[in-house]
Amino acid sequence: MRRSLQLSLAAVFAALHATLYLFSFGLWRNWGIYLEALEGIILGPKIGFLAALLGGSIARAIKPDPLWMFGIVAEPVSVLVAGLLSKAKWKPALLVYAAMLLAYFAHPYGRALPFWTIMDVLFALAVIYPAARLSKYLFKTEAKRLLPIALALVSFVCIATDSLVRVFLLIPCGLYTTFFSSFEVLSAEFVGAAFYSYIEDVIVVVVSLVVGVPLLIGILKLKVLNK
Fold first, then answer.
1. Which residues of the chain have pLDDT under 70?
2. d(CA 9, CA 139)
3. pTM score over 0.90
């Protein structure tokens, strides 16, 4: 992809990321998360990271959020991981997961909180390698049957990464001390958030398939996107 086209797309995605955040409502995160996987796939890890960082920062400057630090970090990192997987680079993604999960379970609260609350993250850990291996079908117009599978896997790992980064910031990095008065309060909020997080996992994958598949096929036909 030409540098000028990359920058143009980055500006478009940054604006779209900010817009989705500003007009989001409903679940506990924001609609910008539904764009993350496509940002990484279309823009690549570096440009995608910058687009998500810029879009998320602008959005929160316009509409302040007391939890701004979670999204500012989690969204760009999630796009970065999606971009890495789209280029079949599974080792850096695996390293990110391993480091954050080890830090989580090394913390006393990580061992005390219900194990089921991060099962989607652990499943995503197991899916990283298959997602990277199948990512080549994201860029082949003749592989329309496998494109949805590849996109679903990358999208799932992407949204799970978003969750993992937020958990990492909350528990190992100690941000829970800023927002929660006791472990009991933290645990209650954490369990509730995990429940909604599983719902969002499903929504993100469905949105990626409904919107992402035709979008990628259309872009591939224009022959401006390559691995």
1. 1-2, 26-28, 141-143, 223-227
2. 17
3. yes
